[in-house]
Write a structure and sequence with these properties.
heterodimer; A: 358 residues; mainly alpha; 2 domains; 1% strand; B: 195 residues; alpha+beta; Alpha-Beta Plaits; two-stranded antiparallel sheet; 4 helices; iron-sulfur (chain B); 4Fe4S_Fe_S_CS (chain B); metal-binding (chain B); repeat (chain B)
Chain lengths: 358, 195
């Protein structure tokens, strides 16, 4: 019985986290965009406008559900649920601290990667169900984009997994810090099992993973449909893209999924490449900084700090770079990112064979 | 391909550095300054927003914003209504039976104004009425923040007389005219009799 209670509590906790994160990050995004453009952003609701997003969600909750007369009612109604649930379920496998993971599974990477692909189905349902040319165009673009970018993202994930030798996200985390169970070598030659810190992260264990992380980051922007890859939403040409016809709480869920997706891809990237919940501070001589800053609280702190930095970078990029054209988007994916991702994969294999087995 | 990818990253970084610079400069706001202040363009960096109802940009003294009439100084000469290119000023006048008084610059007032309406919805803000006014009673004020809920509220009424007063003045004028006519008739009659 307690077993199920914990399940529910975990589910509620994750949902609470997603909702809070969305509210805070929408506010942060509005402020960041304002500061970048020499504006002030929301200033009226509460001091410095900090209650703005709370007021927005209150407004969204009160709004009427409108289903267009010619829409496919079933698809239109369940699409937001599928979009949100796909992202929501992705959080299940992501570890927060050395002993804190909602569901420990030995194929975590594969699971997360598979479950977030389901979002594309939800988006296609939303676009098709709306029976609106803009929605359909947005949805078609979105699916083309997500399916294409899954290829480079998949290859860079595999190259990181080859270095870690595990699909379990928690094991990948463990092997990037002082709690490692396998031998970890900085740049492939210096044993740093007892030094830990930033030296033990995957990107520094095998430096070609830095390139892999950049590819992952670019492709993850495309995966969560954010600028400069926001063609599916493209406000200036498609109104709102696939969510044009949505109102009220349904729209809120699509919006929630978008921000949750940002955090999810940031967290997956942090876990695979940037040490996850491991501290960036190494043990230096008698100063055991890494030992001091490892634990449940510190784990949550580090993973949050890293993810929020990555999310901030996503916002920063959104408000700097202009949107790509459809053909440029595909060129970038197939002609630049995919070959580079392949190269990373080959280097990972060689790294594993030559450096680590020797 | 490597070169292309590198070039893409380099130019992207250029843009990102620019936005980061602006983000860093956002800790400071530009001072709210009027255009005629020295060093108006001095501060380039920082947030440009003027938080309007809380902060206001100083406006020039001679700006053309809202028309205002000091009705006590008006001699009801109708010049403003005549020069107005869009006919937004509507004045009615009643001759007084005697000199009413003097305006603040010493002009003699001989006319009452029961109606002095300016329709700001029609006004084109040319300011011609203020230049022709002999007593300078019609002026442009510095108030620019004027919004109303109904368009008829934009028809400003400056006349200070009530309808009853106006009716009384009309009556007085008619009586005076009648008296004068009677006096004139009497004088004419007397002249004829003298002949």
């Amino acid at each position: 019985m307690n077993f199920y209670l914990i399940y529910f509590l975990v589910a509620i906790a994750i949902f609470g986290f997603i909702a809070t994160f969305s509210l805070v990050s929408v506010y942060a995004e509005r402020k960041i965009s304002a500061f970048i453009q020499d504006r002030l952003g929301p200033m009226e609701v509460g001091k410095y406008g900090w209650l703005q997003t709370a007021a927005d969600i209150l407004k969204l909750i009160q709004k009427e559900y409108i289903v267009p007369a010619l829409a496919d009612k079933v698809l239109f109604t369940i699409a937001p649920v599928i979009i949100f649930v796909a992202v929501y379920l992705g959080f299940v496998a992501l570890p927060w601290a050395p002993s804190l993971v909602p569901a420990s599974m030995n194929i975590g990477v594969f699971y997360v990667f598979a479950i977030i692909s389901v979002e594309a189905v939800g988006i296609l349902m939303a676009g098709w169900g709306s029976n609106n040319k803009y929605s359909l165009l947005g949805a078609v673009r979105s699916v083309a984009q997500m399916v294409s970018y899954e290829i480079p993202i998949g290859f860079v994930i595999i190259s990181a997994v080859m270095i870690s030798q595990s699909l379990d996200l928690q094991v990948i985390n463990y092997n990037q810090g002082i709690l490692a169970t396998q031998e970890i070598k900085f740049l492939g030659f210096l044993n740093v099992n007892h030094i830990g810190g930033v030296l033990a992260w995957n990107v520094f264990k095998a430096p070609h993973l830095l390139v892999a992380y950049v590819i992952y980051f670019i492709a993850s922007l495309a995966e969560c449909n954010r600028a400069p890859f926001d063609l599916p939403e493209a406000e200036s040409e498609l109104i709102g893209g696939f969510h044009t016809e949505y109102t009220g709480l349904r729209f809120a869920f699509i919006f929630l999924a978008e921000y949750a997706m940002m955090f999810l891809v940031a967290m997956l990237g942090v876990t695979l490449f940037l040490g996850g919940w491991n501290t960036p501070l190494p043990n230096i001589g008698s100063l055991h900084l890494a030992d001091y800053t490892t634990g449940t609280f510190w784990g949550i702190f580090w993973v949050m700090a890293k993810c929020l930095l990555v999310v901030a970078a996503q916002m920063w990029i959104r408000w700097t770079l202009p949107r790509l054209r459809v053909d440029q988007l595909m060129t970038l994916c197939w002609k630049v990112l995919t070959p580079l991702a392949f190269a990373c994969l080959v280097v990972s294999g060689l790294w594993r064979l030559i450096l680590l087995s020797a | 391909m490597i070169k292309e990818a590198f070039n893409g990253l380099r130019t992207a970084w250029k843009g990102l550095a620019l936005t980061l610079k602006h983000f860093g400069a956002a800790s400071e706001s530009k001072k709210v300054k009027g255009i005629n202040e020295a060093n108006y363009f001095g501060q380039q960096a920082g947030i440009a927003t003027v938080q309007y109802p809380h902060q206001k940009l100083p406006v020039p003294e001679v700006g053309r914003y809202q028309l205002d009439v000091v009705i006590d100084d008006c001699i009801v000469c109708d010049l403003c209504a005549k020069i107005c290119p869009v006919d937004c000023i509507d004045i009615e006048s009643i001759k007084a039976t005697d000199v009413i008084g003097k305006t603040s610059d010493g002009s003699v007032k001989r006319l009452y104004a029961p109606k002095f309406d300016i329709d700001m919805a029609k006004c084109m803000y040319c300011g011609l009425c203020t230049t022709v006014c002999p007593t300078e009673c019609i002026i442009m004020t510095a108030e620019y923040d004027k919004s109303v809920t109904h368009i008829s509220d934009l028809n400003y009424k400056f006349a200070s007389m009530t309808d009853a007063e106006a009716a009384q003045k009309r009556l007085e004028l008619e009586q005076q005219l009648a008296e004068r006519q009677a006096a004139k008739a009497a004088a004419l009659k007397k002249m004829e009799e003298d002949k």
